[in-house]
Design goal:
The protein has one domain: Cytochrome p450 (Orthogonal Bundle). It is globular, with a radius of gyration of 21 Å. Helix 9 runs antiparallel to helix 13, helix 10 packs across helix 13 and helix 11 crosses helix 13. It is of the alpha+beta class. The longest helix has 32 residues.
Length: 404
């Protein structure tokens, strides 16, 4: 990349605020780029990202085939073990056969019918949150709507008592800090503490549900079985944490990024307000246009080649979802916000065996929150340009200050 081209710099506030010019330069200059600061291969084009998500020569982990030493990777410090145990037993970081077994069991509990039953309560909650903000004349859309809605929904699903729900968001925020690039030791310390506290809390809740099952998802996970196989307690704990972390963070940032995009395109916002039937395609387009999860990492388990570039076993690839979703080779006029776009196979929910299990729930939450604001806040407007969170991998504004 020449000095005149925008640089891929995930620690730069300017890059985090608008990574798309740098993505365009990456796509133009090649299909695979070695990024020295993280030791990763950046993959910016849609076709390659989509193919590698489904390529079984790559994996979210390598521990089902190699030790750390065999794979040329350092052994994680023992003090980080609680975090790695928690994450390592979740669907997102497992490979077959464990992934296959656990996803099959979870699917028996996390059914489409169970998710669909949530629609009326999600819509009611979205309307209540919007009405509370409207009564006060405005506020921070992230704090008042984007964050509380998915946390409340997941907590309701899991059966977390109302008085305990304030614990969930801080735990989630501290744990996901470890998914950023080259996290600091202080980030790791917070993630470990949150992993221990959240795990202990869930183990107590699981014990209560074993004695007194309810209609919640934890009770369903306890009951899920196939041919005598059941989820272990650790697998249940890791599943519950993943549902909160992955579902919550994606929904929060899609809501905030999406409204920021609409505010910056007032003509499109006016068209959406005038035609609520556009909402389903609009939600998909907002997920594509400013992707909440910008990067998804995979380990290379066997030698591969990307665009004539050899990527050896032991390397790590960084699949750039945000770049892939703006690739002109797949999306017509990709930098245009087109709320009526129908040919929209965005990669926001991933692909292959790690496709997001919670995608149907995320779509319900997003339709409810956008729909409630469009219906009940026709004069909604942005009052200040937002500051962006420092993280790049999971990307969104710190706050979105609005008036009604």
């Amino acid at each position: 990349m020449s000095a005149a081209e925008p640089a891929f710099d995930p620690w730069s506030p300017a890059f985090v605020a608008d990574p798309y010019p740098a993505y365009a330069a990456l796509r133009e200059s090649g299909r695979a780029h070695f990024f020295e600061p993280t030791g990763q291969w950046l993959i910016p084009r849609y076709a390659d990202v989509s193919a590698l998500l489904r390529d079984r020569r790559l994996g979210r982990t390598y521990l089902h085939r190699f030790t750390h030493e065999e794979f040329g990777q350092p052994v994680p410090p023992p003090e980080h073990e609680p975090f790695h145990v928690l994450v390592g037993h979740g669907l997102l970081d497992l490979e077959p056969p464990d992934h296959t077994r656990i996803r099959r069991l979870i699917s028996k509990a996390f059914t489409p019918r169970r998710v669909q039953r949530l629609v009326p309560s999600v819509e009611l909650l979205a309307r209540q949150l919007v009405d509370e903000m409207r009564a006060e004349g405005g506020g921070d859309l992230v704090e008042r709507l984007a964050e509380p809605l998915p946390v409340a929904v997941i907590a309701e699903m899991l059966g977390v008592p109302r008085e305990d729900r304030g614990l969930l968001r801080p735990w989630s925020a501290d744990i996901i800090g470890m998914f950023e690039l080259n996290p600091a030791e202080e980030t790791a310390r917070k993630a470990v503490r949150a992993s221990l506290e959240f795990s202990a809390y869930l183990r107590e809740l699981i014990a209560v549900r074993r004695k007194s099952p309810g209609e919640d998802l934890i009770s369903a996970l306890i009951a899920a079985h196939e041919s005598g196989d059941r989820l272990s307690e650790q697998e249940m704990v890791s599943t519950c944490v993943l549902l909160l972390n992955a579902g919550h963070e994606a929904t929060v940032n899609t809501t905030a990024n999406g409204w920021l995009a609409l505010f910056r395109h007032p003509g499109r916002l006016a068209a959406l307000r005038a035609d609520p039937a556009l909402l389903p395609t609009a939600v998909e387009e907002l997920m594509r246009y400013d992707t909440p999860l910008q990067m998804f990492e995979r380990w290379v388990l066997d030698d591969i080649e990307v665009g004539g570039v050899a990527v050896p076993r032991g390397a790590e690839v960084a699949l750039l979802f945000g770049s892939a979703n703006r690739d002109p080779a797949r999306f017509a006029d990709p930098d245009r916000l087109d709320l009526a776009r129908t040919d929209n196979p965005h990669l926001t929910f991933g692909g292959g065996i790690h496709f997001c299990l919670g995608a149907p729930l995320a779509r319900i939450e997003l339709a409810a929150s956008f729909g409630a604001l469009l219906e009940r806040a026709p004069g909604l407007r942005l009052v200040a340009e937002p500051r962006w969170k420092p993280g790049y991998v999971i990307r969104g504004p710190e706050e979105l200050l609005v008036e009604f």
